[in-house]
């Protein structure tokens, strides 16, 4: 609590100093512009005082008002997803607010404080208001444009990184399915089936072709439905159960048509990693459970490490974590506790 209080106090102090700094900048700019148009040194201190007060009123209203508008627009419109829409509304709100603010502040200054008429305010203060509006538009447009292009550049960098992660994931998924171990085991199993059960060997070939078709068809797809992914997992598990029999069980406790989307091959790759890294035998059967809660798809298996792992290449969780870091605010979670290995995939809709 003390640390939190200190942090809050430091943040408050930082904000106060930022406002003081901004006020000094506004006073300096206001006096500079005033003396630029009127270089008389008569009643210098009086002029400095009045110019500073007026500059604070008009400058801080415009600065902090437009700053507040930019913050509110960014909360409602995502710069990353809709940069041009965000920029458009920023400019529209900025123009509208600045025009109204200049008229209101000048009305307070000239009419209410100095007892001018409204007509005199517009006739004598017209040039001043035009200059204020022009300077505001130029400065604020520059800041908004800088913010827009910075957000656009960061978005482009994230998109490129996401694309690279996607390509890496798809490549590793395809590589895992066509690597010599997978092909050797599949063909070896198929060879045995051909002599034992022609019908089952035909089903095996069909399921094997479906597995490869899914990988190839979705190699450029960013997301698929969870139903589609689980259907693919069922085909993949069928191939593995031909080899491991009832010693391997994959329990899918997810209802159909959940409307959830996942990265292609993500659930299947977690099943594959569980099979690859754990012993599967009559004495140590392996059960992989796939369940769902409000925020995550949960893939869980008991830890029973194999003494030797034939291929440590695999997909690895880092690439999958990288993909979900770009697609969701919730990170992919990996838990290794109480004798179980659990991966929790954030729900995407």
What's the topology here?
Elements lengths: L1 H36 L6 H33 L6 H31 L4 H7 L1 H53 L1 H17 L1 H20 L6 E2 H19 L3 E5 L8 E2 L3 H12 L8 E7 L3 E7 L14 H11 L5 E5 L2 E7 L3
Parallel strand pairs: 2-4
Antiparallel strand pairs: 1-3, 4-5, 5-7, 6-7
Helix pairs in contact: 1-2, 2-3, 2-5, 3-5, 5-7, 5-10, 6-7, 7-8, 8-9
Word description of this protein:
By secondary structure, the protein is an alpha+beta fold. It folds into 2 domains: 2-159, no CATH class; 179-346, 2-Layer Sandwich (Heat Shock Protein 90), CATH 3.30.565. Helix content is 68%, strand content 10%. It is built from 10 helices and 7 strands. The chain has helices spanning 2-37, 44-76, 83-113, 118-124, 126-178, 180-196, 198-217, 226-244, 266-277, 317-327; strands spanning 224-225, 248-252, 261-262, 286-292, 296-302, 333-337, 340-346. It has a 5-stranded mixed β-sheet with strand order 2-4-5-7-6, with helices on one face. A two-stranded antiparallel sheet has the order 1-3. Helix 2 packs antiparallel against helix 3, helix 3 (83-113) runs antiparallel to helix 5 (126-178) and helix 6 runs antiparallel to helix 7. The model has no long low-confidence stretch (mean pLDDT 82).
């Amino acid at each position: 609590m003390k640390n939190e209080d200190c942090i809050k106090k430091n943040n408050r102090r930082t904000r106060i100093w930022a406002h003081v700094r901004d006020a000094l900048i506004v006073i300096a700019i206001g006096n500079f512009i005033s003396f630029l148009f009127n270089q008389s040194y008569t009643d210098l201190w009086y002029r400095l005082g009045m110019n500073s007060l007026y500059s604070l009123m008009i400058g801080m209203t415009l600065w902090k008002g437009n700053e507040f508008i930019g913050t509110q627009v960014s909360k409602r419109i995502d710069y990353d997803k809709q940069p041009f829409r965000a920029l458009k509304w920023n400019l529209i709100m900025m123009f509208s607010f600045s025009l109204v603010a200049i008229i209101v502040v000048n009305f307070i200054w000239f009419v209410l404080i100095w007892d001018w008429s409204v007509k005199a305010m517009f006739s004598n203060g017209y040039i001043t208001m035009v200059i204020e509006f022009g300077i505001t538009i130029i400065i604020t447009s520059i800041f908004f444009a800088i913010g827009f292009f910075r957000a656009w550049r960061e978005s482009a960098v994230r998109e490129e990184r996401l694309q690279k992660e996607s390509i890496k994931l798809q490549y590793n998924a395809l590589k895992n399915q066509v690597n010599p171990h997978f092909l050797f085991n599949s063909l070896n199993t198929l060879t045995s089936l051909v002599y034992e059960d022609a019908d089952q060997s035909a089903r095996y070939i069909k399921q094997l072709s479906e597995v490869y078709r899914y990988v190839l068809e979705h190699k450029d797809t960013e997301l698929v439905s969870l139903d589609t992914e689980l259907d693919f997992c069922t085909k993949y598990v069928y191939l593995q159960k031909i080899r491991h029999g009832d010693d391997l069980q994959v329990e899918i406790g997810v209802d159909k048509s959940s409307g959830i989307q996942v990265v292609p091959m993500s659930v299947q790759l977690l099943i594959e990693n569980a099979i690859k890294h754990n012993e599967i035998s009559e004495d140590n059967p392996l059960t992989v459970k796939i369940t769902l809660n409000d925020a995550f798809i949960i893939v869980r298996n008991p830890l029973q490490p194999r003494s030797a792992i034939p291929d440590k290449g695999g997909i690895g969780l880092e690439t999958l974590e990288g993909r979900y870091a770009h697609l969701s605010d919730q990170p992919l979670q990996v838990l290794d506790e109480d004798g179980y290995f659990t991966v929790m995939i954030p729900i995407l809709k």
